[in-house]
Specification:
alpha/beta; Alpha-Beta Plaits; disordered N terminus; hydrolase; serine-type endopeptidase activity
Length: 796
């Protein structure tokens, strides 16, 4: 059967308009599309939440108490009394925007959705969490002349306050000592909330604020039980994730840091002079409540943060911008000049998986650095092969028999799992005391799962053949070596031909500067954005593979490994877009210190248009590897030092974001409430194409189109820029004017870019670049085009 062809742009657009007119936020609608296309509707169960977020947009009153009273009044009308309203409400959002979270039935939620001033009602959702070498790799060094770090420090008295929405912090970590830190700025309005094993003394001149949020989470799952020692009802981090991300961004210098002797060096954050504000919204028991996340955004805006770092999100499908709490909270933060940096997700290498795709946030992809951890494997025939592992334990330098997992299948194993070393597939008698060779498969994608399965049958080692990747999994109990399929096949041949196949492991070692990098990580989610393909996502790539940073000693290094007593460690090597996000957070923090008057959009533009020289030649890990493109890395690999002086910026104002929401088809009245504007929607031209992003993405090029962009000169007052175009294959591109002359009166100039398709068939996405050059600056934006035949979707 031929695959069904659907014009998703039209389908989503039409649905958004219908959805928005109902004024009930569109999570159900988006899920319905997935159900239609995939014939799979189990995801609809997520809307059964008893907690609902009543979002009311921009505050209508300056005094927080009046805003809160208005929330009680609305809820009282539905529930019958103010007492019932107070008992139902979990949070009153009254600082950065207006709204509240409350325990409501579905019928009550529908009634409130029709109340005056309510933008929409959002069912509570549970979101999930998505160094030594990395900062040197990015050339963020203390003594680099004209570099971003010394320049950021030279601006005395203006370090940034970075807020982290994460799992909390381990305040005793050396990364958070306040030696040499400036006094807490007077503009800071935040709190240091106390709780279990966390008191006001845990805050200092580095950790200047700490809050924690449980109401939304506990309303869904019941009271958090902390008696077993796996969590703290306080800002203290029991999971490790928040400590890792915050130390990556702003940790103090620590000499001789390592993970069990690996990746040894001086650990430091990218912006060590920045202040930290902690907002614990995620819990080690699993998940982050959207009601709690929105409360943290509301407080952070009021507290006075300069940058927000959010290494969490939801899996595809993407929610609409008016029912996604990260989009809503970040919209109000950005409107107040707060840059918001988000992880792009770990659902790669598949296309259309990127999340946190709102145009006002900086969405980060993960890339590799030039540090690897090779482990030699010596065969019984004296041949040596090399894989990667993070292992410094015992069971090395001795020969052990090696077997292929498929050759030692348990008699009672599930036939479908027999080929993959999956749980229950291995014969314990035949595996005991041996090294097992396993191959990645559809049912067994994780090396960690394979290692656990081998340990369960008392195997002494694992060799895991998989798609090539530099991301290395941790293993404490047994040596666990990752190789590619070619090496795995070589070992399989050896097992089949040797009379007594044996292997011996060496210890892992650290190798720096001997691997080509950066490469886009295998796991890093890819574009195009499934909700707004005219907005290029991700925005930028940063190191997110095998990053060493501080860790919570209360958290096990390998959460799933309960068979071995794991020693508490203060540092951990971890991977994910969660690790890439704080790298960009630190760079944004330094840029804000150097350019305090730049808007969040200006800072994002500076990052995207000054990509590293490797950005255009990077490889994207995948199956197979391929040349990286903007859907893998956005503008490219971040170049912090170039971003200081981008020459030109593509700036965006808050009213432009509201016009974007209008162009997306959302309800005009709802947007007015959200943005605090009387009538933000104006029907004029193709705004989505002309939205002043530092990229041009045209998902449906029908013959030809002309779009405009405006650039602001932030370099020398008198500057002359010349356009240079690398047109996407199959497309003709012209720029007018091709010269931009700036002076004291002409600081902003507009140009037009015309695209004409040369294809007569339905095309795929292709990529090019537009450069503006003045002899010193090279200001590049990606060009992304998908030619389509005009009547391709016409009914026959």
């Amino acid at each position: 059967m031929a695959p069904m062809t659907v014009n998703l742009t039209k389908l989503v657009g039409a649905g958004l308009k219908r959805m928005a007119s109902l004024r009930v936020c569109g999570v159900v609608f988006v899920f319905a599309i997935v159900c239609i296309l995939q014939r799979h509707c189990s995801v609809l169960a997520t809307v059964s939440s008893k907690v609902h977020i009543v979002y009311m947009g921009e505050r209508r009153y300056d005094e927080a108490k009046i805003v809160e009273d208005s929330h009680h009044e609305i809820l009282s009308d539905i529930l019958g009394s103010k007492q019932a309203a107070v008992g139902s409400i979990l949070y009153s959002y009254k600082h950065g925007f207006s709204g509240f979270a409350a325990e409501l039935t579905s019928s009550q939620a529908k009634l409130i959705a029709d109340s005056p001033g309510v933008v929409c009602v959002i069912p509570n959702r549970i979101l999930s969490l998505h160094t030594t070498r990395s900062w040197d790799f990015l050339h963020v060094k203390p003594y680099l002349e004209n570099g971003i770090l010394p320049k950021g420090h030279m601006v005395v008295g203006t370090p940034s306050i970075i807020g982290f929405l994460d799992t909390g912090i381990w305040p005793e970590s050396e990364s958070f000592n306040d030696e040499g830190m400036l006094e807490v700025p007077s503009r800071w309005k935040g709190l240091c909330e106390e709780g279990e094993e966390f008191n006001s003394s845990n805050c200092n001149r580095k950790i200047i604020g700490a809050r924690w949020y449980t109401k939304g989470y506990e309303a869904e799952f019941g009271k958090l039980n902390t008696s077993d020692g796996v969590e703290y009802l306080s800002p203290r981090d029991a999971a490790g994730h928040g400590t890792h991300t915050s130390s990556t961004a702003a940790g103090a210098l620590i000499e001789n840091a390592s993970f069990m002797g690996l990746a040894q060096g001086s650990a430091r954050g990218g912006a060590p002079s920045a202040w930290l504000a902690v907002y614990k919204v995620c819990w080690s028991t699993g998940g982050c409540s959207s009601a709690d996340i929105l409360a943290a955004f509301d407080d952070a805006i009021s507290d006075g943060v300069d940058v927000l770092s959010v290494s969490l999100g939801s899996s595809p499908p993407s929610s609409t911008y008016v029912d996604d709490v990260l989009s809503i909270g970040s919209f109000h933060a950005v409107a107040r000049g707060i840059s918001v940096v988000c992880s792009g997700g770990n659902s790669g290498p598949y296309p259309q998986t990127v999340t946190n795709a709102a145009p006002w946030v900086i969405t980060v992809a993960a890339s590799t650095i030039d540090r690897v951890f090779p482990m030699a494997i010596t065969l019984g025939n004296n041949q040596t092969v090399v894989g990667q592992a993070l292992y410094t334990g015992k069971d090395v330098n001795n020969f052990y028999p090696i077997v292929y997992g498929e050759d030692i299948v348990a008699t009672d194993a599930d036939e479908d799992n027999a080929r993959s070393c999956d749980e229950g597939s291995l014969n314990a008698t035949l595996a005991r005391g041996k090294v097992v060779l396993c191959f990645q498969s559809r049912s067994l994608r994780s090396v960690a799962s394979a290692a656990r399965n081998v340990q369960n049958v008392e195997g002494v080692g694992l060799i895991f053949a998989q798609f090539p990747t530099k991301d290395v999994s941790l293993s404490l109990g047994i040596p666990c070596v990752q190789v590619d399929f070619t090496m795995g096949t070589y070992l399989l041949t050896y097992i089949g031909t040797a009379r007594n196949p044996m292997v011996k492991f060496s210890l892992s070692r650290t190798s720096v500067g001997k691997e080509i990098s950066p490469e886009v990580a295998f796991f890093s989610s890819r574009g195009p954005s499934s909700i707004s393909p005219t907005v290029l996502k991700p925005d930028i790539a940063a190191p997110g593979v095998n990053i060493l940073a501080s860790w919570s000693p209360a958290s096990p290094i390998i959460p799933s490994d309960t068979a071995h007593n794991q020693p508490p460690l203060n540092f951990k090597i971890d991977s994910g877009t969660s690790m890439a996000c704080p790298h960009i957070t630190a760079i944004v923090s330094l840029l804000k210190a150097i350019h305090p008057n730049w808007s969040p959009a200006a800072i994002k533009s500076a990052l995207i248009t000054t990509e590293d020289k490797y950005g255009l030649s990077a490889v994207a890990e995948g199956a197979p590897h391929k040349q990286a493109d903007p859907f893998d890395y956005g503008g490219g690999q971040v170049n912090p030092n170039k971003a200081i002086n981008p020459g030109l910026i593509y700036d965006i104002k808050t009213e432009d974001y509201t016009r974007f929401l209008c162009a997306m088809g959302y309800n005009h009245t709802a947007i007015s409430w959200m943005a605090g504007a009387v009538a933000p929607c104006r029907k004029k031209g193709n705004f989505l194409a002309n939205f002043n992003l530092p990229s041009i993405s045209i998902p449906e090029l029908k013959k030809s189109i002309t779009v405009s962009r405006t650039v602001t000169n932030v370099g020398p007052v008198a500057s002359l820029y010349v356009a240079r175009v690398e047109a996407p294959p199959g497309t003709t591109v012209r720029v007018a004017p091709s010269l931009l002359s700036f002076n004291s009166t002409a600081k902003k100039l507009t140009f037009k870019v015309s695209f004409c398709s040369r294809l007569s068939v339905q095309g795929r996405y292709s990529f090019g670049n537009l450069f503006w050059e003045d002899g010193f600056h090279v200001v590049r934006i990606p060009l992304i085009v998908r030619p389509v035949i005009e009547d391709f979707y016409a009914e026959t």
